[in-house]
């Protein structure tokens, strides 16, 4: 199945910085390295999808990409295996104090979450509300129900607090989502 | 865990073309789209990992990457979910009639296959032997046993024929690996 406009270029959103100076992506990567080193799970961030237009092959040195564009991602950014199960998630930072706009998640990514859910994946969204300095795990099923109900164009913060699960932090696991995954999905 | 030299640039190997004019990657992508559309599995190729050095942000148009380099991949190229299970594989084309050199698979990728195997993944390698116009599925466990035994620097073709499982082709599924996965891994 080919998504319409799947090769459409888009302007990559600038990363927002959390109060702690580390991005959510950095914190998840550090946590993932901890999980891997301690044989708890294997989860990697996928590379940023780009369309390569021009490559130079200079003699005796590495190939250099001289023209490329960011592509709209067709899947989420993270997936892997935990306790023998397939896990899949997207991570987003949000600066608003009132809500998380659906426009921040690409329709292809929502589609992907639905796809993997149908196949039995453990799927969720990690949402960093930077104004509150809090990270929430939101089950993909809950997110999709609310999204598809069509009543709103964003997740209200009250909903996030009610439905989301607060993710703990520690120095070695600055976004310790696995601890909460085990509980939330009853593994 | 940080792998040594994980940011080392390298020259991306040119794609070899099979006798049929379509690359193995193309054939797997077509098969994956079929699997997705028919709700059989969700498997995607990961984007090519690159290190972005310079990006131009022209006004009113898409961001343009003007300097980037290919990175050594730290995982395999494909993963996803099939029958509720995590599956993970690497795909390689080989022109030799006699053997498949281990130098064609990066040590990080072998390490990754070991990582996911330990966590219960269905993991394998798809090997297209272009001179014979045949695709084989090789269980990651078999591959690793032979690789780690240290007796050879390549997989001899006789070993591939003995241990590998021939993958069928059809117009809609030009590399129908799922059919064989089900059998081989007894799902």
Summarize, please.
With 187 residues, chain A is an alpha+beta fold.
Question: Could you explain the architecture of this structure?
Answer:
Two copies of one chain form a homodimer. With 187 residues, chain A is α+β, with helices and mostly antiparallel strands. The first copy, chain A, has a single domain (24-47, 72-184), classed as Trna Endonuclease, Chain: A, domain 1. Chain A is built from five helices and ten strands, in the order H-E-E-E-E-E-E-H-E-E-H-E-H-E-H. Chain A has helices at 24-37, 107-118, 140-149, 157-163, 177-184, and strands at 41-45, 50-56, 64-70, 78-82, 85-94, 99-101, 122-129, 134-139, 154-156, 165-166. Chains A and B meet through helix 1, strand 1, strand 3, strand 4 and strand 5 of A and helix 1, strand 1, strand 3, strand 4 and strand 5 of B. Strand 3 of chain A pairs antiparallel with strand 3 of chain B.
Task: Give me the count of strands of chain A.
Answer: 10
The CATH architecture of chain A can be named as 3-Layer(aba) Sandwich
Query: What is the fold-level CATH name, i.e. the topology of chain A?
Result: Trna Endonuclease, Chain: A, domain 1
Query: What does the radius of gyration of chain A come to?
Result: 18 Å
Oligomeric state of this protein: homodimer
Number of helices of chain A: 5
Class per helix and strand makeup of chain A: alpha+beta
Identify the CATH class of chain A. Answer: Alpha Beta
Largest interface: A-B, 48 and 48 residues
Helix content of chain A: 25-40%
Whole-number count of domains of chain A: 1
β-strand amount of chain A: 25-35%
The span between the termini of chain A is 32 Å
Average pLDDT of chain A, to the nearest integer?
91
Low-confidence stretches of chain A: 1-7, 13-19
């Amino acid at each position: 199945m080919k998504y319409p406009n799947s090769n459409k270029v888009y302007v990559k959103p600038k990363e927002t910085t959390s109060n702690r100076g580390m991005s959510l992506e950095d914190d998840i990567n550090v946590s993932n390295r901890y999980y891997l080193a301690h044989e708890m799970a294997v989860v990697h961030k996928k590379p940023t999808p780009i369309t390569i237009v021009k490559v130079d092959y200079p003699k005796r040195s590495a190939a250099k990409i001289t023209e490329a564009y960011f592509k709209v991602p067709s899947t989420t950014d993270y997936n892997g295996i935990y306790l023998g199960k397939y896990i899949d998630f997207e991570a987003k930072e949000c600066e608003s104090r009132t809500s998380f706009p659906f426009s921040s998640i690409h329709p292809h990514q929502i589609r992907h979450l639905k796809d993997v859910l149908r196949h039995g994946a453990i799927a969720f969204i990690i949402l960093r509300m930077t104004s509150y300095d809090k990270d929430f795990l939101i089950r993909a099923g809950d997110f999709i129900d609310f999204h598809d109900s069509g009543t709103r164009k964003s997740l209200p913060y009250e909903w996030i607090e009610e439905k989301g699960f607060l993710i703990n932090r520690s120095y070695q696991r600055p976004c310790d989502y696995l601890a909460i995954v085990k509980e939330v999905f009853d593994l």
